[in-house]
Design goal:
Layout lengths: L1 H27 L3 E4 L2 E5 L4 E3 L1 E4 L3 E9 L6 E7 L5 E2 L2 H6 E3 L10 E3 L8 E10 L2 E12 L3 E5 L10 E11 L4 E6 L5 E8 L5 E9 L9 E7 L6 E6 L6
Parallel strand pairs: 2-11
Antiparallel strand pairs: 1-4, 3-9, 5-6, 5-10, 6-7, 8-9, 10-11, 12-13, 13-16, 14-17, 15-16, 17-18
The structure holds 2-acetamido-2-deoxy-beta-D-glucopyranose (3 copies).
Length: 242
Amino acid sequence: MLGASRCRRISGVLLAMLTASLLIRSGQLQVSVRVIGEVTAVQGRDVTLTCNVETKEDVSQLTWQKKMDPNNENLLTYRAGREPTYLTPFAQDRIRILGKGTFDVGDILIRDVRLSDEGTYVCGFSTHPSGIQEREIKLQVHVPPTVSIYLPPIPVQVLPRNVAECTAAAAKPPAFITWVCSSLPYNVNTTDIVHQNKTVTRTSRLWMIPTRSLSGQNATCLVLPTRGGPTGGELHLGQYSV
Ligand SMILES: *[C@@H]1O[C@H](CO)[C@@H](O)[C@H](O)[C@H]1NC(C)=O
Ligand SMILES: *[C@@H]1O[C@H](CO)[C@@H](O)[C@H](O)[C@H]1NC(C)=O
Ligand SMILES: *[C@@H]1O[C@H](CO)[C@@H](O)[C@H](O)[C@H]1NC(C)=O
């Protein structure tokens, strides 16, 4: 009996210690920074990166950085009661803070997005007493394709050959190309060229037997970028030499 009650008392002390440590831990979580962690933008458009803080602590500064190796690049700092400071030409030209004088909204707008803007951004709120709370945001940049179509001059023949081609140049990710054709049988070959800037030029070649019955038929090349509506062009097949 005696042993059991001592044991209960000890576990009571343990419980008290455990509760205290939980309180300290939750004390560290008094600052909550919220972001949208993955964002996709289309080249040439504007994009908002969202980063908000919720806290009753004092917030003294907001910073935005771009993750770089070995050191992150500081893009801007914003201290309470001051104007934001934009620290690089990129930030000066194309970044603006969206929060108007209040610190809870740390959103930024990046204007006229470029492929080079792709990467990981870090937003941080300096709070007292918790210190700096940071979150990461991954920005992906999509590039719509430049579409061109081409009809090679071809002789009438009985073997299948390339009768039309459609190119979706320098897109990221690669564009999706389909053909809408007449009832004549056809085949398609696709080739990709991957550029250094990670865009892809995709060419789709339409193969048919270029008989005389092809003349006057239409084919439509439909290009679907990953974002945005389809583009493409209609081709009038059959400008053939005999
Ligand atoms: C493209 O497709 C045609 C028709 O199927 C075929 O004859 C030709 O060999 C293909 N060309 C390439 C480069 O794959
Ligand atoms: C990517 O590289 C290709 C090939 O050099 C070029 O045509 C294209 O304009 C570049 N795209 C961007 C967005 O820089
Ligand atoms: C091809 O398109 C032209 C103009 O869009 C149209 O006048 C013609 O009837 C079409 N041909 C066929 C076979 O559908």
